[in-house]
Records
---
Amino acid sequence: MTTWVDNPEGGRARGPAAVARAWVEVLVRPTRFFQTGVAPGDQAPGLVFAVCVAVAFAGSRFVLDPATIPTAFGGPGVSAAVSLLFVAVFVAPAALHLTAALQTVLLILLVRDRAGISETVQVLAYASAPCALAGAPVPALRAVCALYGAGLLALGIREVHDTTTGRAVAATALPAALVFGYGFRGFAAAETLLAQWYVI
């Protein structure tokens, strides 16, 4: 189980400022971040980070494209609030840990000497950093965020599990497709861009 009170040596600090700092660091200095910011048994900051990214993604979608707000909970305001709560409490944690389980199976098949499941969860969480910006209805931005996230995932797996780039890319291809292609709408954005270019 994760530790929410103690701060394991080498792990991430807690709090809003720490989340913001981690977001900037993983975008600007990802190799250094994955080498120093991922610690065994320190899933809690990563989980909080992933929830923040998911809420930022969904919230910006609702604000910038109100048509995406579910209508099952009454008015738009109530529906948006309930949907964001659902994303934070259920969708983001479940998606993170299910994807981590899949990623772990793939690592078992491809990487002999690897780090633990906790580190895999953290890598997946922090790799989602670019997608905090992917809620805007701009296909090019969303596609870039998805590609950057997939690249961060492969880089993080390579650094944390001490494997080769080729094995990291092979191990992360399916999880990246699920998380960034479908979850953060990267594939839909790419299809929109291709359709636009084809018309032009």
Note: DSSP finds eight helices and no strands in the chain.
---
Amino acid sequence: MRIDVVTIFPEYLEPLNVSLVGKARVRGTLDVRVHDLREWTHDRHNTVDDTPYGGGPGMVMKPDVWGEALDAVAASGEGEGAPALVVPTPSGRSFTQELAVELAAKPWLVFAPARYEGIDRRVIDDYATRWEVHEVSIGDYVLAGGEAAVLVITEAVARLLPGVLGNAESHRDDSFAPGAMADLLEGPVYTKPPVWRERGIPEVLLSGHHGRIARWRRDEAFRRTAAHRPDLIERCDPAAFDKHDRALLAELGWEPGPDGRFGRAAGAVEE
């Protein structure tokens, strides 16, 4: 996969040189190129923003600068087809594991992280006529710029690529990973030593009984999800629950509604 990032703060993207992403770059699994937006300015102050039409606070990033930058990046990939443009923005589609999987299937991503009040809307509208455009939000909050979101999205996407993780099976049991437990958070994990500060580990994990261990992990996933993200259980397809799941949910204070989906029972106390 190729990833290009156009930004006014190239140094912000230095973390892409370390850990799994950095190793993937060294191996050639991931081709990451960071570009300074100011290289496409034509005044002595390297101006990338201006006042907003209609008034209001803040500044807006100029369309002509962004247009030249994105055109140049696209031209550098002649013969590779059009990239998918990813624009981090609080007003975009929520970034989920499902979207990470979708983006991981693209051969080429170009990120356009904004600063100030954002990028002139005409840039997104223009490129949407010939590129696939994804406006993406990593949460219901506002940052000083989109570079932090680029780091989040890139790491989530990169670890899904073949050859990036040391164990190709690692991401299959992640919270939100596609599969039978896609709507549950991952349960607790343990490693050696077996006793630390007088705290042991659940005996079932030492049993060697794979069926019991799998059941315990699923139960713990339900417990954690019910405690921290009850909304995930509420939107789960009840057809994915077995008899044991339903009994555990009842124990945790959940009951099926008229549509079959589970919600907290009346009078249930949150753990």
Note: The beta strands are 2-7, 31-36, 49-50, 60-61, 84-94, 108-111, 132-137, 254-256, 262-264.
---
Amino acid sequence: MTVHASRVRPPALLALLGFVAAVVVVAVVGGLASASAAEQYASFARPSWAPPSWLFGPVWTVLYATIAVSGWLVWRRAGLTAPAHVVYAVQLLLNMAWTPLFFAAGLPGVAFAEIVLLWLSIVATIALFARHSRAAAWLLVPYLGWVTFAAALNYAIWTLG
């Protein structure tokens, strides 16, 4: 049994690294698109409940880790061909698109419409992931919460601006 376990671990570790890499690409694209995000954010008219700009980096770091692990957990149970991973990929692409829309393009209204689609895709991902792994689904709940908050902040900045 030890031999079998050692044959299983490297592919699982490689798959986890693949999920981490996918999430890192999303984070890097967002980072490149928002090189001056902290300065832009500081210049916006914001609601009193808006968090300081330094908070976004640590929050997203934790969330991206949970997003990667969540996808990996479902992969271990269902593989990449599961419809759940199609929706997972869509939410990653929507996640990646928000920052360029909001900061680089300066389109908070379009970014708000896009973040609503992101929110819906996260809900769909949670529902589909729950069929394969409750842990994977629960790992996405803080992400959904943060995107809910981010959508409200996006809307507030858009309407105050």
Note: The two ends are 63 Å apart (CA to CA).
---
Amino acid sequence: MKLGQNFLWGGAMAANQCEGAAFEDGKGLSLMDKIPDAEHGRKEVLYQPHLTLQKDHGSYPSHEAIDFYHRYKEDLSLLGKLGLKAFRTSISWSRIFPLGDETEPNEAGLQFYDDLFDECLKQGMEPVVTLCHFDVPWHLVEKYGSWRSRKMIDFYEHYCEVVLTRYKDKVKYWMTFNEINMMTHIPFLGGGVIIGKDEDFNQIVYQAAHYQLTASAKATATAHRINPDFKIGCMMAAGTFYPYTCHPEDVMAACDANSRNYIFIDVQMRGEYSSYAECLFKQMELTLDILPEDLVLIKANTCDFIGFSYYSSRLTSAHPVDVKIADGNAITTLRNPHLSITKWGRQIDPIGLRVTMNDLYQRYQKPLFIVENGLGCEDVLANDGVHDSYRIDYLSAHISEMEKAILLDGVHCLGYLAWGIIDLVSAGSGEMDKRYGLIYVDKHNDGSGSLKRIPKDSYYWYQQLIANQGEIIY
């Protein structure tokens, strides 16, 4: 199968996982700069920040990451030679507004992204930019409680106004928040929200999510005013829930899980909360600060496309007794006996990508954009490179199912961006040894390494795939 010339083959990274330079050129601390590596308590900080943030954990991988801040020209040159048509990254909010609530931006931060986007365009790559990718300025967390506060909407709107205006002639594709549904799974990662053990978890996360949804609508309105040609996307962590068995109760459990996972994207794509969401909020006895003007704003400013990450399908049951659990990386799922699984708990399901694409497209009838898909695993660097045939198998299987969704099922998809196109710090585990890249970075969990970049076998495979417009050569 082949896709057209306009299909955006590309790769994806995120500022907090690749840039480093956490204290350079006026940048302020972000929430990711307060999260240590796996060995020094990352899981505890992610899931219990109210208990662990006061400690000095000693090792913070985002502070250097892979030093993309100083090496971006070298890296983008490698990606240009790969043949990428699109490169996804994010803007670090605290690089533009170090505290987050200032009036005037940091010019050095703005200039960095000017130079970065110029280099992308020079290499023939369309920038795809996430405005907030798990990257809230730390000052906003400390002073306002981050997205627990309605004040965040104005701070975010001001930040968006500045960067959308600055880069209006360099960036066409934008996404407002990364994996917005992560708020209900890891609220500290999803938005810097810290919840005490005696607080109502659902009340806080759905309120914070509403403020994010309102802010997203404001950013969408601002973007379309600044440049009507902008394409503004939402972004979700996707993966259809399957029923564990064909028992009607299991089917209903999967229906419920999928409806819950779509709550925020329903708002961003349809312009209103679903009747399912309204019933759920009543059942949870939530009292949410939702103003009439919020709903008017949201209704008038839906997104242009659905960006999503896909790593695996999910599995659920009405009676999950004596069923194995898979880690699932943030989203708990039952163990699917028909799928293989990675060391880090992700089940591999290429057909699930096609299922998910069909579900999303039939639900919203707006273009999709696969902005993350990839395999995190341990790679071995040999004298003659990295022979990652397992990654080639993974990518080819998923791309094949994507092409079936497009060419056989009629799904409209803008592009495919391989996640972690260059090895970077894992957001979940904080490790370097959980590698996604098609380019190896000589850096390890303990921080050692030369940071040298080395293309893997998968790099050359993807290069050929792009040159052949998606025709997979086995």
Note: The mean pLDDT is 96.
